[in-house]
């Protein structure tokens, strides 16, 4: 599989989800929250963090709507390998890092993954305890700024 075909594939999104859940551990997150946190993760500079892993292209706000299926596929792959676990509770299904998540992430020697894990830690520290509603509010505010910067392309 080429590097280009890996970008935003279930494998890459699954690894991002594992890294994010490992940073959140022992907290869990439902799919809706993971979609929002993944967006923050990829565009950290828009939210006051380090340089973003993905470039600041117009229309990046529309990416949020495309993520749910990719994240579900990535979580399925990661879950099949014990990297994430489903938690069924009164508020529905959420996900938590599995026992193998940290050893799996430590087995890589990649600048991209090291950068990703640092940003995951920042996302977990800044947004890990924020409600989904508050997180949506922050994202709407940033998307509004993108619209001002890029016009209707955002």
What's a quick, concise take on this entry?
The chain has helices at residues 3-6, 10-24, 31-42, 64-80, 101-106, 111-127, 132-150, and strands spanning 29-30, 84-89, 92-97. It is mainly alpha-helical and 154 residues long.
Task: Write a structural description.
The chain is globular and about 40 Å long. The protein has helices at 3-6, 10-24, 31-42, 64-80, 101-106, 111-127, 132-150; strands at residues 29-30, 84-89, 92-97. It has a three-stranded antiparallel β-sheet. The chain is built from seven helices and three strands. Helix content is 58%, strand content 9%. With 154 residues, the protein is mostly helical. Helix 3 (31-42) crosses helix 6. Residues 146-154 have low confidence and may be disordered.
Question: How do the strands and helices of this protein lay out in sequence?
Answer:
Blueprint (H helix, E strand, L loop, with lengths): L2 H4 L3 H15 L4 E2 H12 L21 H17 L3 E6 L2 E6 L3 H6 L4 H17 L4 H19 L4
Antiparallel strand pairs: 1-3, 2-3
Helix pairs in contact: 2-4, 2-6, 3-4, 3-6, 3-7
């Amino acid at each position: 599989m080429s590097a280009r075909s890996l970008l935003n594939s279930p494998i890459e999104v699954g690894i991002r989800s594992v890294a994010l859940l490992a940073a959140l551990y022992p907290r869990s997150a439902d799919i809706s929250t993971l979609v929002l946190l993944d967006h923050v993760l990829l565009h950290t500079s828009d939210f006051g963090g380090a340089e973003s892993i993905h470039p600041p292209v117009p229309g990046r706000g529309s990416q949020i709507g495309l993520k749910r299926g990719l994240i579900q596929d990535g979580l399925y792959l990661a879950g099949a390998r014990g990297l994430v676990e489903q938690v069924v509770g009164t508020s529905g299904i959420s996900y938590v890092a599995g026992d193998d998540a940290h050893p799996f992430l430590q087995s890589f020697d990649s600048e991209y993954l090291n950068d990703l894990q640092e940003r995951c830690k920042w996302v977990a520290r800044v947004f890990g305890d924020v409600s989904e509603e508050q997180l949506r509010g922050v994202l709407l505010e940033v998307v509004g700024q993108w619209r001002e910067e890029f016009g209707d392309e955002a």
